[in-house]
Amino acid sequence: MNCKFAFAAVIFLSLFPAFGRTPRPPKQSDTAILQQIERGWAAAFVHKDQAALGRILAPDWRGQYPWGNENRPQALAAVVSGTAYVQSMTLGEMRVRVFGDIAFSTGSDDERSSYAGKDTSGHFSWTDIYARRNGHWLAIASQLTSLPK
User: Fold this and answer.
1) Are 41 and 121 spatial neighbours (Cβ–Cβ below 8 Å)?
2) CA 29/CA 45 separation, integer angstroms
3) pLDDT tens-digit profile of 69-124?
4) Which residues does residue 75 pair with via DSSP β-bridges, in sequence order?
5) Which of 45, 46, 33, 64 has the alpha carbon at shortest distance from 138?
6) What is the secondary structure of 6-50 as a DSSP string?
């Protein structure tokens, strides 16, 4: 009888390998992770969160904006100093396309902002390019275009 019980227990446990284990949360898709990064990027601009921006932008990141081109140190300094000021930003529709360890994120936003004291508020279209480095997505290039409302 004990042999039958042991055999049944082995069969039961082999059919349910997760039995007795703590369930893991489902792994987020790259698309969901990148959309979350984009939302965090917008929030970091509004809150002048240099640490968050530093985690998002790769050391070799470059941005092209209507007011000029910036590298990572210039962008971080502009946000902290208030040269780049974003009072509010509302993201529009976003599309993410992943190609292995490279991804493109495109979208739009409406913002109230200024750069070097000049009003830059408006409706914008943007493209961000990401590379997966050491298992983490980092922005490597960005382009922002001002659109008519």
Assistant:
1) no
2) 25
3) 999 999 999 999 999 999 999 999 999 999 999 999 999 999 999 999 999 999 99
4) none
5) 33
6) HHHHHHHHHH-TTTTSPPPPPPPPHHHHHHHHHHHHHHHHHHT-H
d(CA 86, CA 88): 6
Phi, psi dihedral angles at 117 (to 5 degrees): 80, -5
Residues paired with 63 in a beta bridge? 70, 142
Bridge partners of 147, per DSSP, are 123
Tokens 């070799």 — which residue?
60
Summarised one tens digit per residue, pLDDT across range 7-63 is 444 444 444 444 454 444 545 799 999 999 999 999 999 999 999 999 999 999 999
The residue written with tokens 């750069």 in the block is 115
Handedness of CA 96, 143, 116, 92 (dihedral sign): negative
What one-character DSSP code corresponds to residue 132? E
Single-letter residue type at 62: R
